[in-house]
Structures are given as structure tokens and as C-alpha cells.
Specification:
Layout (H helix, E strand, L loop, with lengths): L1 H21 L9 H10 L6 H12 L6 E2 L1 H10 L6 H11 L7 E2 H15 L1
Antiparallel strand pairs: 1-2
Length: about 120
């Protein structure tokens, strides 16, 4: 049980760090422009694929290779955002290309790349 609690706090710290890094105006939230900037800039000298995998792992709490609506809700809650499970399912549906109800890494990557292109 301690280990599970430790993993949750690690995920929360990672998510908070990601928000702090991307939050250019310091309001504690990431707006669309800040998100797009963070995705398009990536890290200097850091492999983009690995950056995407790290971001994916923040959401994939059970490490099964998929992001569920429940996992999206947990991350958003950790960031102080209240979101219903129904709303999270709608978010998943918008990214879920194969219709299995979850987001795999390739779907996540495609979404992030598409958002990056839209920012240009």
C-alpha cells in the first residue's frame, strides 16, 4: 500500500513539474497556447519520442499501455481540475482512433503531433 501511495505522489510531482515548466504566465494553469508551446519546443537535446513516452506515463498510472478516462480524471484532479468521468470519456473518444475506449501510445503521439502542427 505504501508503494501505491508513493507512485501517486510521484505522478503528482511529475504532473506539477510539467505544469510549472509550461506555465509561462505563472497563473498555475496551462492554457492552450502554453500547452502548444511546450509540445512544439520539447526539451533542448531531448529525444522527442522519450518526452512523449514520459508524458504518456504520467497518465498511464496502472502501466497497462493505455490511458483510460479514469486515469485522465485522476491526473486532472491532481492538477486541481474537476472533471466528470463523462467529460473524460468524451476527451478519450476524441483521440481514440480504433474505438476501444482507451488511448494507446500511438494515438497519444498522433494527438500530440497534430496539436504541435496546429501551433505552427
Amino acid at each position: 500500500m505504501l508503494r501505491l501511495g508513493h507512485e501517486r505522489s510521484t505522478v503528482a510531482r511529475e504532473a506539477e513539474g510539467m505544469v510549472r515548466e509550461a506555465d509561462c504566465d505563472g497563473d498555475g494553469f496551462i492554457d492552450l497556447d502554453e500547452f502548444m508551446r511546450a509540445v512544439s519546443e520539447g526539451g533542448a537535446g531531448v529525444d522527442e519520442e522519450e518526452e512523449l513516452r514520459e508524458a504518456f506515463r504520467v497518465f498511464d498510472a496502472d502501466r497497462n499501455g493505455y490511458i483510460s478516462a479514469e486515469e485522465v480524471r485522476r491526473v486532472l484532479a491532481g492538477l486541481g481540475r474537476r472533471c466528470s468521468l463523462k467529460e473524460c470519456r468524451l476527451m478519450i473518444r476524441g483521440v481514440d482512433r480504433n474505438g476501444d475506449g482507451v488511448v494507446d501510445f500511438e494515438e497519444f503521439k498522433a494527438m500530440m503531433m497534430m496539436n504541435s502542427l496546429r501551433a505552427l
